[in-house]
Amino acid sequence: MPIGSTPPKYRVRIDNDRCMLCEQCIENCPYGTFRKEGNKILVNSRACTGCHRCIAMCPRDAIDLEEKPVDYRSHPIWTREAREAIYNQARTGKIILAGMGNILEVPPIFDRLLLDACQVTNPSIDPLREPMELRTYIGKKPSKVEVATKPNGDIELLTHLAPNLKCETPIMIGHMSYGAISLNAQLSLARGAAAQGTFMGTGEGGLHKHLYPYQDHMIVQVASGRFGVDIDYLERGAAIEIKIGQGAKPGIGGHLPGEKVDESVSGTRMIPVSSDAISPAPHHDIYSIEDLAQLVRGLKEATEWKKPVFVKIAAVHNVAAIASGIARSSADAVVIDGFRGGTGAAPRVFRDHVGIPIEAAVAAVDEKLRHHGVRNEVSVIASGGIRDSADVTKTIALGADAVYIGTAALISLGCRVCGSCYRGLCPWGIATQRPDLVARLDPDIMWENVSNLINGWTLEIAELMGAAGINSIESLRGNRDRLRAYMLDENLMEVLDVKTVGAGA
Amino acid sequence: MAEKISIDAEGLHYTPLNQQIRAAVAAGAKEIVLDNVNGQRFIGNGLRGKDVRITINGVPGGDLGMFMSGPTCIVHANAEHAPGNTMDAGTIYIHGNAGDAVAHSMRGGEVYVKGNIGYRGGIHMKEYQDKKPVLVVGGRTRAFLGEYMAGGLLIVLGRGYTCPVDERGIGTGIHGGEIFIRGEVPEKHLGIGATKKPFTEKERELIRPYIKKYCIEFGIDDPSLFEDEYVRIGPASARPFAGKYTWE
């Protein structure tokens, strides 16, 4: 039975006194919100996704956008989202897919953690005057080193060191594949990461040849679909990451729909044009932790033990024990992706309800690895909803070596978090393959935005560390004494191993 | 270096063994014989070299020829888990049986197994342009054959069996490529997304060269392999999951 339409999500209005009929809004909106009739711009508000492209491009500030202009009768349980999901499923009988990260309205734990600073008794450090060490090595570290003294008095290192990634900042860019995002977006991210001496992930979409100049700053991904994976790809990457899971959709695979597989995406993924790219839920050669160790070693053997191999998992209930297994599988780093991690598309029910917050996961993993005496054996990289330098600093204090950012890096390219990635019409040229839209994002300009963002955050981390009297990122790592919990419950404080505000040293 | 060299794998760990193989290939060896192989994993892993032949005397461990791009490996014994895993090009002949996940995610090249294989054979094989992977199994296979298959050919000769794949999950989620099985295939064993299609002379010609290569390598003279009917299984749709989702 027809239910009728649901209320519009947005209302767009043109201020005709300000509008000069330049038609920038019509040109910029790929969803067809605007049209010109006579000497007036008319609006179809239902087409709007709230992406702000028109507002950003209007030279006269003549566009007004209102979210939820007509809302339902308010109710604390039967929210608009709950009601509309039911209407959708009553109509279709299918699984609801959604874009971007978790929308559950629970406060981020980050916002309930506060950082420390020095006053009087221990002097703070001025990063302008004193060297601050933010360089982070990702990879295996030996538990001890053996040295010998040469006859001329020089010291010789006898221990064989495993390859490590040298990051000039603890901020890396996570895996967003070509196909999910545009080549121009990937190019901007790669060049920005390279400029800052850090790394970015390829995602499971292969490595386009235009990215080869930045390959020394790229981590190539091997996921369950094995798309784009051959020996050439593995050898090009600075490191290899096995993707087991993703914070936005733990436990399930991914499907890049055939319509997004154009000629170029097809070549990079090495699948036919218009073919669905289906990544199964598990890797079908990994059904146990022993099998995982076999793939880790298989990748190392293929690349002659020259590349660090990471294993990425979603933060799930038993994350600490799983990470401990990974740490003993010859992997060099374990990547933990929390439940706020972003995505181009995931079933809504998974995006919002499966997995745990990264803050608790990192603390639990760090504790477990220390307990088992293997924390030094691997690096821990955390991701999933990291919004600013404070989140990075808190994540490291909870026990991570470094972070991956995803959505934040896309926002630096103009992304407005409208969550319509799955439409393939991203007006910012990010989550689209349509040539005219991709051309809006000029990598020769936009890489600087990415570089600036990482630089700005890195400067802030140095300031935060200096204020806390810490001059090396190693002294911040796992340093929970620099955190205090504000309005967190006792159980969570125990998991995080953080004291309450007001508690002394 | 001589075109042909032998390596004694007795007691050798897989890393030094692969290092010796790589060194031999780099020095121009075309025929490499590995003796006393006993469970070493990853043999030929990531190895390049189109005209290199590696003869393996003994049982290799898992992931034989993983990511391999060009060489031919001939195993004079059984093989373990996942020979031809994510292989790019080249050929693997196994004069025996092989374990689970044979030719897992194989992108190109050919794998021939004289006897039987385990579970998940040819799972997620895929093709692109001139790269069409082929897996030929002489005997029978266990469950989940050709699941998520996205391209290539999977041929089960079923020698000695009337129902060579007598377990469930054949071709679940298949969205490209084809499976050919000589013998009975009960409908109930087909996975979601897989369907039987007519086997015509065109398909017989398509699989003939691979059956021939099987017969030549393993010294088998059996005209019925060429003459018998095969059950042809392919994707019911190129989008097996398309009907499951709606957008927010």
Q: What are the main properties of this structure?
A:
heterodimer, A: 505 residues, alpha/beta, Alpha-Beta Plaits, TIM Barrel, 2 domains, eight-stranded parallel β-barrel, three-stranded mixed β-sheet, 16 helices, 23 strands, 29% helix, 17% strand, globular, B: 248 residues, Pectate Lyase C-like, eleven-stranded mixed β-sheet, 14% helix
CATH topology of the largest domain in chain B: Pectate Lyase C-like
Rg of chain B (CA only): 18 Å
Alpha carbon gyration radius of chain A: 24 Å
**Order of strands in the sheet with the most strands of chain A?**
11-12-13-14-17-18-20-21
Distance between the termini of chain B: 64 Å
Percent of residues in beta strands of chain A: 15-25%
**SS elements, strand count of chain B:** 12
CATH architecture of the largest domain in chain A: Alpha-Beta Barrel
Describe the secondary-structure layout.
The complex is a heterodimer of chains A (505) and B (248).
Chain A: E1 10-14, H1 24-28, E2 34-37, E3 40-43, H2 53-57, E4 63-67, H3 80-92, E5 95-98, E6 113-115, E7 136-138, E8 147-149, E9 155-157, E10 165-167, E11 171-175, H4 183-195, E12 200-201, E13 218-222, H5 231-236, E14 239-243, E15 254-256, H6 263-269, E16 277-279, H7 289-302, E17 309-314, H8 319-327, E18 333-337, E19 346-347, H9 348-353, H10 358-371, E20 379-383, H11 389-397, E21 402-405, H12 407-411, H13 435-438, H14 443-467, H15 473-476, E22 483-485, H16 490-496, E23 499-500
Parallel strand pairs in A: 11-12, 11-21, 12-13, 13-14, 14-17, 17-18, 18-20, 20-21, 22-23
Antiparallel strand pairs in A: 1-4, 2-3, 5-19, 6-22, 7-10, 8-9, 15-16
Helix pairs in contact in A: 4-14, 8-10, 11-14
Chain B: E1 4-8, H1 14-26, E2 31-38, E3 53-59, E4 69-75, E5 89-94, E6 110-113, E7 134-137, E8 150-156, E9 176-181, E10 194-197, H2 201-218, H3 224-227, E11 231-235, E12 245-247
Parallel strand pairs in B: 1-2, 2-3, 3-4, 4-5, 5-6, 6-7, 7-8, 8-9
Antiparallel strand pairs in B: 9-11, 10-11
Walk me through the structure.
The complex is a heterodimer of chains A (505) and B (248). Chain A has helices spanning 24-28, 53-57, 80-92, 183-195, 231-236, 263-269, 289-302, 319-327, 348-353, 358-371, 389-397, 407-411, 435-438, 443-467, 473-476, 490-496; strands at residues 10-14, 34-37, 40-43, 63-67, 95-98, 113-115, 136-138, 147-149, 155-157, 165-167, 171-175, 200-201, 218-222, 239-243, 254-256, 277-279, 309-314, 333-337, 346-347, 379-383, 402-405, 483-485, 499-500. With 505 residues, chain A is an alpha/beta fold. Chain A has two domains: 10-94, Alpha-Beta Plaits (2-Layer Sandwich); 137-500, Aldolase class I (TIM Barrel). Chain A has an eight-stranded parallel β-barrel with strand order 11-12-13-14-17-18-20-21, surrounded by six helices. Chain A has a three-stranded mixed sheet with strand order 6-22-23, with helices on one face. A two-stranded antiparallel sheet of chain A has the order 1-4. In chain A, a hairpin with a 5-residue loop joins strand 8 (147-149) and strand 9 (155-157). Chain A starts with 9 loop residues before the first strand and ends in a 5-residue tail after the last strand. Chain B has two domains: 1-96; 101-239, Pectate Lyase C-like, CATH 2.160.20.60. With 248 residues, chain B is α/β, with parallel strands linked by helices. The N and C termini of chain B lie far apart (64 Å). In chain B, strands 1-2-3-4-5-6-7-8-9-11-10 form an eleven-stranded mixed sheet, with helices on both faces. In chain B, helix 1 (14-26) links the parallel strand 1 and strand 2. Chains A and B meet through helix 3, strand 5, helix 5 and helix 7 of A and helix 1 and strand 12 of B. Strand 5 (95-98) of chain A pairs parallel with strand 12 (245-247) of chain B.
